[in-house]
Amino acid sequence: MEETQTIESSEIESSSEPIESTEEVVAQEPIATPKLREAKVDVDGHVLQINEKQLKALWGLPDNEELTDKEFKSLVSAYKAQKTADQRSLQASKQEKLVKEIAELIQKNPFELLQRAGYDPRELAEQYLAQAIEEDMLPESEKELRRVRQERDELERQYREEMTRREQEQVEQAQAQAQQEITSQIIESLENSTLPKSADVVRRIANYMLIAEQRGLSVHPKQLIPLVEEDFRNLNSQILKSMDSTNRINYIGEDLLKQIRQEDLARLKKPTSNSVQSQPRSSRETTKKITKEEWRKQLAERIKS
Description:
Elements: H1 2-15, E1 38-43, E2 46-51, H2 52-58, H3 69-108, H4 110-116, H5 121-137, H6 140-189, H7 199-214, H8 221-241, H9 245-252, H10 254-269, H11 273-278, H12 281-285, H13 292-304
Antiparallel strand pairs: 1-2
Helix pairs in contact: 3-4, 7-8, 9-13
């Protein structure tokens, strides 16, 4: 019995030794917290700063929802619009409160209103009384002369204001009439051109006319048609040269490509008189046909060159 107990005791002691694990312990890297995007908005001269988390909370979005740059910018724009509206509403409320306060002071305590405006009510009252006494002491003829002068000054002021208003109206009418005439001339000039009657074309021609006028030159819209045509030709050429074959075809469009193909086929089917005489019949009959894809590649190469 003693030997059995001794063996069991040794087994227990040996089992109490620390067991080394053969597995390698992999160190876990800390999870990087994504940096919140921030934005600054200007609301009537006040710069406000807001981050992505605050925007999500403001619009009731979950914190873990990912936003694209476009969505983030849209939320910032909406935040700016809301803050601008709040600011305008606050200003309007303050203005309304001030108007009511001034109206109450005029009725109940005008002296306090004068003091707030920076005037001394006592001094103003003394000046008013002195002026009233001085006018009362004047002879009737002098009083009448002053009254006539005041009426004359008032009539002159009204006349000046009326003339200014009429002159402004005449200038605006002349500008509107000139703009209408120029627009009509431009549209009429586009009748016999390859340019479309679009707002961009009219704007370009009007801009060239303005430049010519600033340089002391008088030009008609018809004289500027070739210049604008060249502008669009150069612009389209630069765009097409910067594209690959597929994008060139997409830029031109299927309808226009179909029209160009039909014109090319019609031209191939109708050879010139010189080519008919110089080529034998057999060569014309053995003309190689091309597929639609081959024609597209040839067209893309022609546009590129």
